[in-house]
Amino acid sequence: MNYIGSKYKLAEFIADSIKEVVGSFEGTTIAELFGGTGIIARNLKSEVKKLIVNDLEPYSFTLLKNYIGNTQPIAQSEALIQTLNDLPPFEGFIYQHYCAGGGSGRMYFSDENGQKIDAIRQQIEAWKKTQHIDEPTYYFLLASLLESADKVANTASVYGAFLKHLKKSALKELELTPAEFAITQQANEVYNEDANELVKRPAVQGDILYLDPPYNARQYGANYHLLNTIALYDDFEPKGKTGLRDYNRSVYCQKDKVATAFEALIADAQFQYIFVSYNNEGLMSKEEVKRILSKYGKYSLKTTQYQRFKADKTENRNHKADATEEYLHILVKNF
Ligand SMILES: C[S@@+](CC[C@H](N)C(=O)[O-])C[C@H]1O[C@@H](n2cnc3c(N)ncnc32)[C@H](O)[C@@H]1O
Questions:
Q1: Which domains does the chain have, with CATH numbers?
Q2: To 10 degrees, what angle do helices 135-151 and 77-85 make?
Q3: Which residues pair with 209 in a beta bridge?
Q4: Secondary element (H or E) of residue 154
Q5: What is the rounded CA–CA span in Å between residue 190 and residue 198?
Q6: For the residues 91-110, what does the mean pLDDT come to?
Q7: 245 vs 66: CA distance, rounded Å
Q8: What is the pLDDT of residue 325?
Q9: CA angle 211, 65, 30 (to 5 degrees)
Q10: Phi, psi of 213 (to 5 degrees)
């Protein structure tokens, strides 16, 4: 997924930098409390003893349940995917509220793809209710749907707005493709909570904590509301032109609250090694992050240049592709 703040291109830099400090991942428990697409944890999954992952947003939780929570092969996965791909279209919630044919005035998906999302989503839920599928399979199928739907969304990357005309990729038929995950022998934990609350739990402790909080004012719940709606598939009244649902307002996206929340998180963290990704355009300055972390132990910093997230350039000129500095703040915590 083309995700705001994605560390996809930085995954190697981050993993190598962590390894330099801790020596080896063998036998370690690593927690990632702002998991997003889960790309960092996915890269480390085969190397560590255990992962604890979390994100506030339901769509992200769904991806994490699949990519990190799932460790054993899914029985009959190909047949299930095939059956879902072959379903007849259904005029459900997504079609009614987010496709032109539904009469809402919104066009996040083509009519055909909206109906296909509805058909697949309803079937996954029906299978869960009748216990035709177990929990790992449920999240595997749901993650597959979220990623496949995202590929044909008629947006300039995020769901804060839809495009006036169906773009080329949105005209393609949605094809449900399997969200393959690594097979491992682990008992990982996946949460859908506020990081500041979760970190206080006695069970949430380990060797390494990786934090990648939002760094600007763009709330993920607003920018990815439609993925939450597909993940939750609940009944609500979509609001306004964009069909927004009620969404989480993270303190990490609020200039006047972020530093206090960040310090509380660090203070409560039961991990010896803490790594924090942040960039030079964040709500907290490099110096502020350093000042906070330095209170809790031995601090150091690694920096790299990075081509930041960009929206579809041809269709949304507000987003520029330019280089930014990405920081990895490092704390070896005193206890
Ligand atoms: C910069 S993104 C993480 C990106 C991720 N590392 C990746 O590469 O996909 C920040 C994430 O923090 C989540 N988030 C925001 N506030 C949060 C909070 N208070 N607790 C937990 N997660 C939160 C957002 O939903 C978003 O997925």
A1: 1-55+189-214+257-335 (3.40.50.150), 72-180+215-249 (no CATH)
A2: 50
A3: 31, 274
A4: none
A5: 11
A6: 98
A7: 24
A8: 87
A9: 35
A10: -70, 160
Calpha distance 185→206 (Å, rounded): 18
Average pLDDT score, the chain: 95
Is residue 247 packed enough to be buried (19+ CB in 10 Å), middle (13-18) or exposed (0-12)?
A: middle
194 lines ligand 1 (CB under 6 A): yes
Alpha carbon nearest to ligand 1 atom 13, residue: 34
Kindly provide the residue ranges of all beta strands, DSSP E only, lying in 36-149, ordered along the sequence. 50-54
Distance from C-alpha of 52 to C-alpha of 190, rounded to nearest angstrom: 6
Tell which residue, 78, 91, 53, 89, has the closest CA to residue 198.
53
- Sign of the Cα torsion 191, 193, 199, 201 reads negative
- The answer, yes or no, to whether any atom of ligand 1 lies below 6 A from the CB of 55, is yes
- Maximum distance among all Cα pairs of the chain, rounded to whole angstroms: 60
Terminal Cα-to-Cα distance of the chain (whole angstroms)? 38
Q: What is the value of pTM for the model shown? A: 0.95
Residues in the chain: 335
244 in helix, strand or coil? strand
Over its C-alpha atoms, the chain yields an Rg (Å, rounded) of 20
Structure tokens at 104: 């809402």
Q: Ligand 1 in contact with 67 (CB < 6 A)?
A: no
Cα 14 to ligand 1 centre (Å): 16
Please give, one letter per residue, the 3-state secondary structure of 12-44.
HHHHHHHHHHHCCCCCCEEEECCCCCCHHHHHH
pLDDT digits (tens, 9 = 90+) for 120-158: 999 999 999 999 999 999 999 999 999 999 999 999 989
Which atom of ligand 1 is found nearest the CA of 39?
Answer: 8
Q: Is 294 helix (H, G, I), strand (E, B) or coil?
A: helix
Helices and strands, counts by H and E, the chain: 13, 7
Tell me how many degrees the CA angle 8-14-18 measures, rounded to the nearest 5.
Answer: 150
Q: What is the pLDDT of residues 17-68, one digit of tens each?
A: 999 999 999 999 999 999 999 999 999 999 999 999 999 999 999 999 999 9
Distance CA(97)–CA(114), nearest Å, equals 9
